[in-house]
User: Which sequence fits this backbone?
């Protein structure tokens, strides 16, 4: 029974992990707390649902959902990130939240506010190990999430583009001096982070077989929590945070009850922020110069 | 010189001060004194550690070892916020006026040290026409001939004007020791003259000045003494004319433009 | 007054109170994303006092506001050690934890919600909102308000000028929590029913939008932001289902054009200077 919970926790955690990595790319490199990410997560799930419902093959529906999320994210870069450079640090928050509200309401107009059932793709294929039941969809999602993160981590450390991104993360000014072209790098990062969020949304839809215009809020905010618990700006921090938050959520539901999830999850976040603000494996921020 | 300073009390005294950043000695066993009412310049090549000294005296950086005393009070471990009450205020190399506040409001924040009670904080002074706080700040501005800028937003003002307003703000706390970080840098000759006038007026009021400055003509016209730093160590001290002849000082400045 | 108009104005009043609760800490450079938690404390405490202790509404509301403020101070002190985005997330987590605690607190109804017997009519709500605005306007004429901006603008220099940065921030955070608790307490007594699910993330986030949209540089920004956010969707009522989408689109385009918000210092100066030019 406990091992079943651990499997479920890992599954949920891998979704939080993808969302957390999406957030961490935006904040670690561009210093932008991008609240449109929960919206892009939802677009991933809802557009995939819409495509499948139209009779498209699931692979086409998924590709369409990813492409749509990428396009929207480019709009976010143009309208919410770029005009805000050099202004109040809180201002981009408003517009990225604006995107969340906009996307939710557009989906609401198209599909209504109810939960929609997402058709099972790999329904009857389950792996049984003793009492443990692992759905093939679960296993595939877990493998895909981990593969994505491992690839991203390799990309950032081993390729030229990746090194450029890490230079920007260290110091935007230095990066510009070294000839990094921010106006071409930022849109690519937005697309990358949108793909991660939308992939997470599709995996969520496939695994939990339900979608709704508001599915992004709960998952998105826990993704932020995961990012901070692990350590803002660190990919492996986001992985650790995501898995930890997923575990805690599943275990507190099964041990105490669904109503305490927000107490345990956000209580942990609060505790981490007070005791170790840089997160479990993050670095403390540097001191200002006069 | 020693005979003279013995007659005056010491306003700022630095003894055996050291500071390292990531293993590199930025300040190495530095000692000097600024007598009450005098102006001393802290000079040296870029990276010699001048601003680091300011940052330790004002409490932005903790010291590794050594002591700092202001008006005879040991402030070495005093929180930065309380040092202005001990009597030391400063200006900033890269002017740090508050961008969203007007010139007048910046000066009102500068008065805080003398109006720090809860009652003062909650007085609706803006409702009182020409409240004494506003009058006082305007008068300080007028003394530097800057009263026309009182209502302006600081962000829009010319560099030289902002620099001098930064100085006026530093004087409003009522501290008797002022540390000025490159006050003349970036000023045109007219503004430099105006600044010289400002500083001489402050000296006439009995204030003690510690100035970091590269313009040696300016130093010569304002400061009685200089302390020369190189790689965090004091290599010379005394009147500028004497120090100029020093071999170590000449070597330190070799390759760096020096006005003779 | 028609029922519809009264309803809109009551919503407006609560939005204005919430906006000022967020404005106080934002003016000092702290983004509070957990204001709903303090509203919940005010709402539940006041409802408990009138329901179970038979207190009069006014006393219950004031004491609950004070209680929300004290909780804000107690939790705020450790939370305020963090800065920027960390502080925003800490307050966000705090808001979530507080409303989840009420979800599990059976003495005030738990997940089933908590009916409130005593009733505060619309006029009381209007007067309360007017009172909060008046209080904020008065506060904006003090050194305290000046220091809020100073601390936000440059905390290092404010500290070197002798201003207690943590003291000012803690005071702003506490006052904000108090105003939020005040609003929550009134909310409970006007709508006669509260449930923990109401005090969710969006309830915390929307007032932040009002304030950032209206602009944080002046005391009028939150008022204008709350007015706009409450009334504009009402005007868009004709296109019922599109209104929030259109509204969100407008916000995005507006912020792209004017990131500093609607009401700014330079706006005042612009008008202040134009007038004499026109007359001469």
Assistant:
């Amino acid at each position: 029974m406990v091992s079943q919970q651990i499997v479920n926790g890992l599954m949920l955690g891998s979704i939080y992990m993808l969302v957390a990595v999406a957030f961490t790319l935006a904040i670690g490199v561009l210093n932008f707390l991008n609240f449109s990410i929960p919206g892009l997560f939802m677009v991933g799930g809802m557009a995939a649902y819409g495509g499948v419902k139209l009779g498209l093959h699931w692979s086409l529906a998924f590709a369409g959902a990813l492409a749509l999320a990428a396009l929207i994210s480019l709009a976010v870069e143009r309208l919410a990130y770029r005009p805000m450079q050099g202004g109040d640090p809180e201002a981009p928050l408003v517009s990225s939240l604006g995107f969340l509200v906009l996307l939710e309401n557009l989906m609401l107009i198209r599909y209504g506010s109810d939960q929609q059932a997402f058709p099972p793709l790999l329904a009857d294929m389950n792996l049984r190990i003793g009492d443990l039941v692992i759905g093939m969809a679960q296993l595939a999602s877990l493998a895909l999430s981990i593969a994505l993160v491992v690839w991203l981590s390799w990309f950032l450390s081993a390729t030229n583009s990746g090194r450029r991104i890490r230079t920007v993360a260290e110091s935007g000014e230095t990066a510009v001096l070294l000839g990094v072209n921010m106006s071409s790098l930022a849109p690519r990062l937005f697309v990358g982070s949108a793909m991660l969020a939308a992939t997470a949304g599709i995996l969520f839809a496939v695994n939990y077989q339900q979608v709704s215009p508001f599915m992004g809020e709960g998952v998105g905010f826990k993704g932020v929590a995961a990012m901070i618990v692990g350590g803002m700006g660190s990919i492996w921090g986001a992985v650790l945070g995501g898995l930890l938050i997923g575990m805690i959520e599943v275990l507190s539901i099964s041990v105490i009850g669904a109503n305490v999830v927000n107490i345990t999850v956000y209580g942990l976040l609060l505790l981490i922020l007070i005791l170790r603000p840089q997160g479990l494996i993050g670095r403390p921020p540097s001191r200002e110069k006069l | 010189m020693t005979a003279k300073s013995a007659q005056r009390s010491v306003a700022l005294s630095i003894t055996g001060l050291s500071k390292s950043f990531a293993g590199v000695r930025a300040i190495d066993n530095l000692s000097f004194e600024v007598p009450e009412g005098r102006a001393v310049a802290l000079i040296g090549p870029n990276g010699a550690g001048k601003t680091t000294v300011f940052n330790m005296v004002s409490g932005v950086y903790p010291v590794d070892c050594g002591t700092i005393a202001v008006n005879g009070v040991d402030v070495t471990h005093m929180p930065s916020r309380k040092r202005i009450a001990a009597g030391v205020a400063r200006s900033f190399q890269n002017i740090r006026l508050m961008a969203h506040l007007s010139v007048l409001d910046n000066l009102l924040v500068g008065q805080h040290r003398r109006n720090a009670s809860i009652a003062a904080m909650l007085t609706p002074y803006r409702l009182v026409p020409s409240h004494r706080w506003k009058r006082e700040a305007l008068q300080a501005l007028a003394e530097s001939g800057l009263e026309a800028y009182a209502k302006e937003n600081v962000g829009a003002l010319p560099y030289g004007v902002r620099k001098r307003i930064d100085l006026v703000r530093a004087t409003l706390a009522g501290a008797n020791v002022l540390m000025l970080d490159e006050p003349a840098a970036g000023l045109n000759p007219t503004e430099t003259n105006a600044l010289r006038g400002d500083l001489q007026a402050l000296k006439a009021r009995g204030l003690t000045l510690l100035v970091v400055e590269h313009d040696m003509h300016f130093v010569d016209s304002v400061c009685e003494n200089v302390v020369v730093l190189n790689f965090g160590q004091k290599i010379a001290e005394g009147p500028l004319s004497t120090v100029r002849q020093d071999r170590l000082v000449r070597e330190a400045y070799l390759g760096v433009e020096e006005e003779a | 007054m028609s029922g519809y108009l009264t309803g809109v104005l009551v919503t407006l009043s609560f939005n204005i109170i919430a906006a000022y609760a967020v404005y106080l800490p934002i003016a000092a450079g702290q983004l509070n994303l957990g204001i709903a938690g303090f509203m919940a404390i005010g709402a539940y405490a006041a409802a408990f006092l009138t329901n179970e202790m038979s207190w009069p509404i006014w006393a219950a509301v004031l004491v609950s506001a004070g209680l929300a403020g004290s909780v804000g101070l107690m939790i705020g002190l450790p939370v305020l050690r963090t800065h920027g985005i960390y502080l925003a997330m800490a307050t966000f987590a705090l808001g979530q934890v507080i409303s989840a605690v009420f979800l599990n607190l059976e003495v005030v109804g738990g997940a089933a919600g908590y009916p409130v017997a005593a009733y505060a009519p619309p006029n009381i709500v209007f007067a309360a909102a007017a009172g909060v605005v008046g209080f904020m306007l008065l506060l904006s004429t003090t050194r305290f308000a000046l220091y809020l901006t100073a601390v936000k603008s440059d905390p290092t220099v404010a500290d070197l000028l002798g201003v207690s940065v943590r003291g000012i921030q803690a005071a702003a955070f506490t006052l904000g929590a108090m105003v939020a608790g005040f609003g929550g307490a009134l909310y409970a007594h006007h709508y006669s029913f509260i449930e923990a699910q109401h005090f969710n993330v969006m309830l915390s986030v929307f007032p932040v939008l009002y304030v950032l949209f209206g602009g944080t540089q002046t005391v009028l920004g939150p008022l204008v932001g709350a007015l706009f956010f409450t009334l504009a969707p009402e005007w868009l009522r004709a296109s019922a289902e599109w209104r929030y989408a259109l509204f969100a689109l407008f916000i995005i385009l507006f912020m792209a054009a004017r990131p500093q918000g609607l009401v700014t210092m330079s706006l005042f100066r612009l008008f202040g200077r134009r007038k004499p030019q026109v007359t001469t």
